Amino acid sequence: MTPEDPDVIIIGGGASGMMCAGIIARAGKQVLLIEKNPELGKKLSISGGGRCNITNAEFDTRVFLSNFPKAAKFLHSPFSKFSSRDTFSFFEKRGLPLVTESRKRTFPASQRATDVVAALKKDLHAPYVTILTGTEIKSFTKEEGRITGVLTRSGTRYHAPYIVLATGGLAAPETGSTGDGFRMLRDTDHSVAESNPNVVPLKTNAKWVHRLSGTSHSFMEIRFSLNRVTKIKKKGKILFTHFGISGPLVLNLASQVRGLLKRGPVHAEINLFPDTNAGDLDKRLVRLFDKNKNKKLRNVLPEMLPKNLAHTVIYLADPSLGEVSVHSVSKEGRKRLVKTMQTLGFMITGTLGMGRAVIADGGIELEEVNFSNMTSRSHPNLYLLGDILNINRPTGGYSLQLCWTTAWVAAKDLIVRLESEDTQDTVDESDK
Ligand SMILES: Cc1cc2nc3c(=O)[nH]c(=O)nc-3n(C[C@H](O)[C@H](O)[C@H](O)COP(=O)(O)OP(=O)(O)OC[C@H]3O[C@@H](n4cnc5c(N)ncnc54)[C@H](O)[C@@H]3O)c2cc1C
Questions:
Q1: What confidence tens digit (pLDDT) does each residue in 265-317 have?
Q2: For residue 1, is it within any domain?
Q3: Which one of 169, 361, 377, 400 has the lowest number of neighbouring Cβ atoms within 10 Å?
Q4: 266 — phi, psi (to 5°)?
Q5: How far is the CA of 184 from the centre of ligand 1 (A)?
Q6: Enclosing domain of residue 33
C-alpha cells in the first residue's frame, strides 16, 4: 500500500498512538497518523512534571495489575505479551535508558519527558509513516455497518482497512484529549462510561494553605472527615499549592474525597508528626528549646519542620509566640504548638476538575473490548488504546504502561493480520 492508501489509520498522536504507529512502520506497513494538535505527544511531554514517570518497575505482573482493581482480569492477556519489563528494553533499544526511583517509579535517565517523545518519534518516518498534524477527525466513515475510514473536520475522507482510536480520555483537555474518541465510539453504538476526574488536586479556601504553596513534607498523615467522623486516613507526602493540596498521596485519595463531597462538607486535618504522641512531641520541643534558650521561636522551630511550615504552625497556634525567646514559651504555649502540629485543619471545597486532572476514568466499557488484540468486539477492524479504555488506576507510571502495553499488542496483531493478508504470518519479537 502507499501513503495515500494506508494499511492503518491511527487517530491521536499521543503516547499510545505514536508507539503503535512506530511498531507498525518498522514492519514495513503504511500508517497514516492523524493528530489535531500542531505537535505530537503534547500530554506525554508534560507528564510526570516534565520528567515522565514512564512505567513502574514492578515486574510481578500480578502485583502490577493489583493497581487496576476492576480491570485486572481483562489485562492479564495483554500484560502477558508486553509488561513493564518490556518497556525498559523497548526504550533502551531506542537510546533512552531508564532509572527507577522510590516506589518503583521509573523515569528516563535524562529526566526529560521530551526525550520520551523524541524516542518514539525516531520510528515515525517516511516512507512508512505519514503524519498529519493540525488535523481533527470528526467521525468514522462507514459502509454497510463496517468502519471504513475517517472524516476530518474540514471534510476530507481517508480510508484504510484498519483504524486505531488513540484519542485519549478527558483529563487535561488543553493537551488535546477532549473526549472526541468517546463521541465517535457512542456514534458507532459502543457503550462509553461517563468520565470523572479521579486523580486530581484538591481545593481549599484556607489562606494559610495557599501561602504554603511549594512547601512539601514527606511524612504527614491526612484525615478527611464528614460530620466529624473520619472517613479516610492515610500517611505520605503532601504538597501545598496556591489553591490547596496535591502530591501523590492526595492525588490518589481524590476520587474517594470527591465521593465524600457529594455527601456533605469535608474537613481535612493534617498531622505533621503522625507517629509521635502529644507527650513525646512536647518532650521534643522541651529538648529543642533547652538547646536554643535565647533564640526566638521563629528561628528555632524550623529545626523540626520546613521553615514555611514552622512559621505557619506558630501563626495558627499563637502569632505572638514567633518573636518570643523559646525560654519564655509557657507550658500552655507548647501545648498549643503541639496541638497545632498534630491537627492542622481546613475545609476542602472541591477538586480542580478535569482541567487539572492527571487521570480521569470513563471510556469504553471493558466488556466491549477483545483484550487479546485490543479490538472492539462489535467492530473487529477498530483498535482501542490507552486512555480511551475505562480503566481507573493510581499515579506511579501505571497509566503510561497501559498505553505501551495496549499499543504493542494492537500493533503486533495488526502486523499479523496485514501479513496474513499477504500470506505471511510471522511476529517479529525483536521490536521489544
Ligand atoms: C499533567 C499530567 C501528568 C501525567 N503524568 C504521568 C506520568 O508521569 N506517568 C504516567 O504513567 N501517566 C501520567 N499521566 C497520564 C498519561 O499522560 C496518560 O495516561 C497518557 O498520556 C494517555 O495517552 P493516550 O495516548 O491514551 O492519550 P493522549 O496522550 O491524551 O493522546 C491523545 C491524542 O489524541 C489527539 N486527539 C484527540 N482527539 C482527536 C481528534 N478528534 N482528531 C485527531 N487527534 C485527536 C490529542 O490531541 C492527543 O494528542 C499524566 C497526565 C497528565 C494530565
A1: 999 999 999 999 999 999 999 999 999 989 999 999 999 999 999 999 999 99
A2: no
A3: 377
A4: -110, 125
A5: 17
A6: 8-195+362-431
